Every structure is written in C-alpha cells, then in structure tokens.
C-alpha cells in the first residue's frame, strides 16, 4: 500500500484534532462539573435531569408554603395561649364574685376588670398576621374579622380557612367563627336557666342520665306553693305532661326524659326554670358581656347572684374549652408541619441526587480520563513531529 507524505500529514492532523477536541470536552466537564451541557450530549440522562429539576422546584415551592403556614400557626397558637390566660383570669374573678361578703361595689369592681379582659380578648381576636390579613380571618379578610355592635360582637369575615397548595394543604388562617363564637351552650347537651323573676331558688347545669331518652324538646319546670307545700309541673314544648304536681325537695334530682337537674332553694308560685337543647352559639364576648352586666346590676338576691355566677362560670368553661380545642388544633398543625418539612427535605434531597446522577461528572473518573487523553495527545504530537521530519528533501539535505 502506497502512502503519500501529504496523506500521512493529514492523518496526523486529524488525529491531533480529535484528541484535542476530546481534551477540550473533558476540560469543560471538569470546569463546570457537568457531564451534560446540552441535551444532545445524552438525551435520556438530560430528560432524567429535567424531571429531577422540576421535582426540586415543586419541593421548594411546597417548602415556602409550609414555612408560611408555620409562621402563621405559631402566631395563632401563641395568641390563643394569651386568650387562654385571660379567660383563666376571668374565671378566677367570677369565682371570687361569689364571695358572700362582697357587696355591689366589690362586684362592680370585678365587672370593670372583666370588661378590661374582654377588651383584650377582642384585640387578640382581631390580631393581624403582619402582612395585611388576620389570623382569625377565615377564608381571608382585608378588614378586621370581628366588629363590636350594640347587639354584641359579630363575625364579618367568611367562615372557613385558607390553605396551602394541594401537595401540603396546611392552614394559613383559622376560622374565627368556630374558635371564638361557636362553643356549645350549657353542659354541651342541654342548657338550664332560671327565669328573671326567680328570687330565691337556683338550678344547676344538670347532666345526661339516659342518652337514649333524650328528645331535643324544650322543657319548663313550673313551681307552685299551696298550704306551705311546694310542687312542680313539667311542660314539654309549652304543653302539659304527666308530671303535674310532683313534690319538690330542695337539691333533690329531677329527671326529665333522660336529663337530670337539681333545683335548690325556695321557689315561689309561678317560678319557672327552662331546659333547652344545647346549641353551638356560645361566644366568648357574649359570655363576658353577660357577666359584666350581671355584676353591675344592684339589689340582686343571694340566689340570683349565685345563679348568675354559676351560669357564667359554666359558660366561661365552655368557651375556654372551645378556645383550647382551637389551640390544640394549631399545635397539631405545627406537629404536622414538622413532618411535612422532613418529608419535603427528603424528597428534595432524592431529586437532587437523581439530577446529580444524571448530569454531574464523576470527578475522579474525569480527571483520570483527562490525564490519559493528555498523555495520548502528547504522544501524538511527538509522533507527528517525528513523521514530519521524514521527508525526502530532509533526507537528501541530511545526506
């Protein structure tokens, strides 16, 4: 086979060019740390890297949402904790108001402190999140969710709550209607009350003695006194029942359709006590407003004072339990946020690992390849230089 000098030179140049291109490619990989700089370098690996990058983006978006929920739920839990402390103080005041040695002036002083606590609680209920919305704004509100009207505090925001994206579904607000204005009245099943004209008798909160016998109807205990004997009748939804002249004993249990109550004291003819189904309509502010109004009312009898204090203590316990449930829910969200944070961190790390495996260069292997290519390139240069000197003219001149 006959090989011309020009052909030999061209082959040498081609080999040197290829080796130089390979070295340049390896040098680019070592510089960028990426094995793939264009999709054409490895289409399959580029697609894997793209999917991993998209997954990382979703994880980062979810992490920002989780962090936002964490900040807001931490604020909510803290504010509910403050509300809890204020209501505990209100309860202490109501207990002290039952002191038999207190007169109207002492009870008025207690009422003034209760009013101050009520105002502080109202401020907490309208607490901003610092970003133009409100912690208890439900589905979002640009104005304060609670307003104080002559007829009581009203919730003017949309009930419900806003949440993060579907992937996490964490709350960003709390439903103020449920937290502040939706405790169950009475003992949670039924509520007892004395008519305003009752002066010398009281009724307790009662209890359920037979759940299967409950009817959900309204009942009235109507008392009569004749010849020094006190009896009572039971009305159901305003209509007479079989109980028409039952003997009354102070403090003795009275059972009506699965409900047991006790009336104490000396009822007068015409005195009435109501038993009605419990409803989820008891609000923090209404309870305190009623307590303040009662404590500022002068000239009440001992029974009226005792009844008012007992009813308000019962109601404060109900709204306090409701706020504590809301606080517990916020705490559960914070626990869930910790789990979501760990999950998203693991998900992001897995995606970053997948992307790295798909597109990052193996430095040890790349450096070894580069050194091998460099050695080959040096050898090719030397070989080319030697071949280049082997021309006929150089041989003749040398001869």
In short:
By secondary structure, this protein is α+β, with helices and mostly antiparallel strands. The protein is built from eight helices and twelve strands.
Structure description:
The longest helix is centred in the last third of the chain and has 58 residues, at 302-359. The mean pLDDT is 85. The chain folds into two domains: 34-185 and 280-360, f41 fragment of flagellin, N-terminal domain, CATH 1.20.1330; 190-278, no CATH class. It has helices at residues 5-32, 43-97, 104-125, 176-181, 284-295, 302-359, 363-388, 392-398; strands at 146-149, 152-155, 190-194, 201-203, 207-208, 219-226, 229-236, 239-240, 246-247, 253-256, 259-265, 272-277. The protein is α+β, with helices and mostly antiparallel strands and 399 residues long. 29% of the residues are buried. The strands form three sheets. Strands 3, 6, 7, 8, 9 and 12 form a six-stranded antiparallel sheet that branches. Strands 4, 5, 10 and 11 form a four-stranded antiparallel sheet that branches. Helix 1 (5-32) packs antiparallel against helix 7, helix 2 packs antiparallel against helix 3 (104-125) and helix 3 runs antiparallel to helix 5. The protein contains eight helices and twelve strands.
